[in-house]
């Protein structure tokens, strides 16, 4: 079930009850697990999952029809072509379960994520290829969020009407830092109402590295979930500093507490500066350790990235070769 949201309840904003040392301990465990390494079969399945939950992204000021067409082609062809021989050779290994895991859908990112004005280019390329992939669009004043609500609503309506299945909006960080969480709630609730009409997935970007404390990150995350966000997302990718696993731990705690209070499961999306498979694996382990295996699926876990795909495929090819040496 998607998250319909609840009435604003400021009593839920005070639930962050973990010490900084506890957060650091969990983060260290995630990093240590990644550095020590995984059994090949586990690593292969984790890397395959990362491919599958990826929002393959291009949000550049220089994007145009040609770059977006290349993005769509990359989503469908890159992993399949480079891993085809490795997966076929697994037919003679004992790892039938793992071999069956790598299907066409597994090797295709979950969405392509583009600016609202580039949705048309994605739609046209998909028609040409006779393929389908969901389109995620940043909208609503991305990346600053310092835009009148009426303008944010207009852009979200534009994105949905042109084919976006998912909307990634960004909060007004000024509201969060100044403690105006109720106003932030109603801003997000207005956009959620548009998404409900079209059965659109709403992801809310917190820009955590621009918030002033762990408490503010927690409160912003909880406010976004109360307003009906289906995912909370770390970053726009345009901040001066990227989100860390430390921020992710706080966000996971908020998701866990919201689920305990409401029974609604909200997803987490890590984005911004995630270029290497080790980084992505650390986020996966964090989500698994804090939220559990239920969250290790595309409906509850995403990674937004523009260049991660290449590194994950390269590493996955190396791991798969171990099964037929």
From TrEMBL:
Keyword list, A-Z: Lyase, Schiff base
GO biological process, one term: carbohydrate catabolic process
Pfam families: DeoC
Enzyme class: lyase
Coiled-coil features, chain-numbered ranges: none
Active site residues of this protein: 233 (schiff-base intermediate with acetaldehyde), 269 (proton donor/acceptor)
Annotated family: Belongs to the DeoC/FbaB aldolase family. DeoC type 2 subfamily.
UniProt name for this protein: deoxyribose-phosphate aldolase
Organism annotation: Sipha flava
